[in-house]
Design a protein that fits this description.
Blueprint lengths: L7 H13 L9 H14 L13 H7 L19 H14 L11 E2 L8 H10 L8 E3 L9 E5 L8 H12 L3 E5 L2 H12 L24 E4 L2 E4 L4
Parallel strand pairs: 3-4, 4-5
Antiparallel strand pairs: 1-2, 2-3, 5-6
Helix pairs in contact: 1-2, 4-7
């Protein structure tokens, strides 16, 4: 009489299926759970939690990668807040509200910051990258302004001397310049700017205020409070 072979192949297939898709792991051993979390760690990008100890792990697995941002997109759901995450939120908001505010179509980032190796930094400098230029630019004239520059900050970050110089010069040249410490602050100021009348839609009357922002040019918005930038 032939003995039945243990169903190792079936168990191995089940373990492989669990590792590929955590949603299939209804009940698993501690070892399998550790392996599953390690495998998931390689698939999840830009998350501040470590999958092995993460309290959101089950929720993360249930969400699935495509719903959490998809390939090539930064996951903001559990990401630690920073200047980058706030700016990404601004750009995502602008993308989804372009139909409502067509002026947002050409809002773009000017990549002057960030860490680069020496060769790349030298190349970019020769190509025209300049320190101090604001993070976001909206090349759309509204009201009495030629366009809008937004410098994004977060936490206790402060302006460099070159950033102060750039914002002051742009404000003097007729652009609206502002520093925002959060997505909410940037969203609020963008909504006000894009609802200003277009230059051809009104006749300029000094002092009527209809073509100006409600906050002073070159202001700082932080925690809902408005602060004027100190003059150089």
């Amino acid at each position: 009489m032939m003995r039945r072979r243990p169903q190792r192949g079936k168990e191995a297939h089940k373990r492989k299926r669990i590792l590929k898709n955590p949603k299939a792991a209804a009940v698993s051993s501690p070892i399998t759970d550790v392996m599953e979390r390690i495998m998931w760690m390689f698939r999840v990008k830009d998350c501040r939690h470590i999958c092995l100890f993460c309290e959101y792990y089950e929720k993360c697995g249930l969400d699935g990668i495509p719903e959490r941002g998809g390939k090539g997109k930064m996951n903001l759901k559990y990401a630690k807040k920073s200047e980058d995450t706030e700016q990404i939120s601004v750009m995502n908001w602008a993308h989804w509200h372009t139909a409502e505010y067509p002026a947002l179509k050409w809002l773009h980032h000017i990549p002057n910051g960030g860490s680069r190796n020496q060769l790349e930094a030298k190349k970019l400098k020769e190509m025209g990258v300049k320190p101090g230029v604001a993070d976001l630019f909206l090349p759309c004239p509204k009201g009495c302004y030629h366009g809008m520059y937004i410098e994004m900050k977060y936490g206790n970050n402060r302006h460099t001397d070159r950033q102060k110089e750039f914002l002051a010069d742009m404000a003097a040249a007729g652009y609206f310049a502002v520093t925002c410490y959060s997505f909410e602050d940037a969203k609020k100021v963008l909504e006000e700017y894009v609802t200003l009348p277009s230059p051809e839609a009104y006749s300029i009357r000094a002092g009527d205020g209809v073509d100006e922002m409600s906050i002073p040019n070159n202001s700082i918005l932080k925690d809902g409070k408005i602060k004027e930038t100190k003059r150089r």
